């Protein structure tokens, strides 16, 4: 089939030049194969090099009518765009027939957050008689105080910790380094853990510089951080679905609600684009709306008279 050789070439490109995971490559293959099947079902099948924008639009209309959700439709179009970008790079075509196509608008889901009171409840409800309880409390404090990703937390090193200056170094995505202030409450818990729990561990070779260790003296895993957060939340009786990332979202939301500069929040979160950080302005807008409805006398008056005839 005329499509097969080009799809296989695209697969090699994704593997060798883009270094994508097998899972990602498989997803791209499925998406492009859907377009190939659509093209080959028609008598006027033109192949990947001759297909035009109208044909791709017809294909997108078909998958829309199949009832696929907007996220799936957007992903399929993204795969097709990547395929034709590859063909342009290879010199097989001059312009991509998908370049002007736009996918369905995706509604950005606002991140789940915890209130400051809920975070305090989690910290206060922790059973400090358990082994390494101060480590677990220090982990929760650090997640919230610094807005760290899970991987950033498990890779947090003693050589990145500057308690006297009240900041830490963080190695984020793509090995990008940033400096993040750390609150006194987190410093207090980390220091207690270092002096009273970590010092008693039999630390294994190669793990000496990691701050948070398991009871065998090795670096904690991401899974263990999720377990600590889940058990601590359950202990506090909070019924929300809470993950380590929830503390990162809460960190950012509370900063924006408090009036922090969005660029500063971007830097502390390690976002490449300010657009990613701007989602927290939407969270803040919702917070302001709820505040007005609750406390503004005009809003109360309108609610009280809403049943009156016009």
How many domain units?
2
Number of helices: 14
How confident is the prediction overall: mean pLDDT? 86
CATH homolog superfamily of the largest domain = Intergrase catalytic core
CATH architecture of the largest domain: Orthogonal Bundle
Order of strands in the sheet with the most strands? 1-2-3
Structural class: mainly alpha
Sheet with the most strands, sense and barrel status:
3 strands, antiparallel
Helix content: 55-70%
In short:
The chain is mainly alpha-helical and 310 residues long. The protein has 14 helices and 3 strands.
Task: Describe this structure as you would to a colleague.
The protein has 310 residues and is mostly helical. 56% of the residues lie in helices and 4% in strands. It has two domains: 2-89, Tyrosine recombinase, N-terminal domain (DNA polymerase, domain 1), CATH 1.10.150; 116-292, Intergrase catalytic core (hpI Integrase, Chain A), CATH 1.10.443. The protein has helices at residues 2-16, 22-40, 53-65, 70-89, 116-125, 133-146, 150-154, 184-196, 222-235, 244-257, 262-269, 274-277, 279-295, 297-304, and strands at residues 161-162, 167-171, 177-181. Helix 1 (2-16) packs antiparallel against helix 2, helix 6 (133-146) packs antiparallel against helix 8 and helix 10 (244-257) crosses helix 13. The chain is elongated, with a radius of gyration of 26 Å. The termini are far apart.
